[in-house]
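User: Can you help me understand a structure? I only have the sequence.
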Amino acid sequence: MGKVVSLYGGRDPRELPMYSIGDASVYLGVPRSTLSTWVRGKRVHGRTVMHALIKADRASGLLSFNNLAEAYVLASLTRRFELPLQRVRSALRFVGGERPLLTTPFQTDGVGIFVEHIGKLIDAARGGQAAIREVVESNVERVELDERRLPLRLYPWRLEPTEPRIIALDPRRAFGRPTVVGSAVQSETIIDRYRAGESLGKLAAEYNLASDVIEGVLRWGLDAEKAA
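Assistant: Let's start by predicting it. Here is the structure, written out as tokens:
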């Protein structure tokens, strides 16, 4: 039997550089300048005024799927719940560790940023104050986790996290490009063929997908273009 070669060279595909900042900003619905600051930090007159929160691949500058998941957590806290970035930074300093955005399930009530600690929910943004569990919402409801509680798959949203899961980002499918949930069909393929004049019905039949799923993919693509 011939030698079996690993597609990823023995590495976890979630850690492989896959996404440019431009692509990632479109997929997550985050302004490119904002994501760039999270990844590269910010300097003014040669002085660092904001340190990077996400570490991209040093050689290529590309983001991994895990980086994308970290950016999703930041985007959820600052975009959906409109929490000030300084408050998020305070929570990250309190939690500590190498990659708290990746390994810590953060929750919020729109004011505090909470984590589990010794069976209690505490406010990491305010130095560990206890929280009332009933008012807290999770910001990771569209992140699928593995048995180690690490991100496995991401379902990006456009307007509300409650919208249907149409698109998936999975580092083990299509090299991390957006695919239609439950399939290996890339969203870009459907969008390009629709632009070329193919009908919704034909696309739905050929890919064995419901018409409303095809419509959802096209809406997602249109919103992605607006965000670019």
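Now, to help you interpret it: The first strand starts at residue 42 and ends at 44. The chain has two domains: 13-81+139-227, 82-138. Let me know which part you'd like to focus on.
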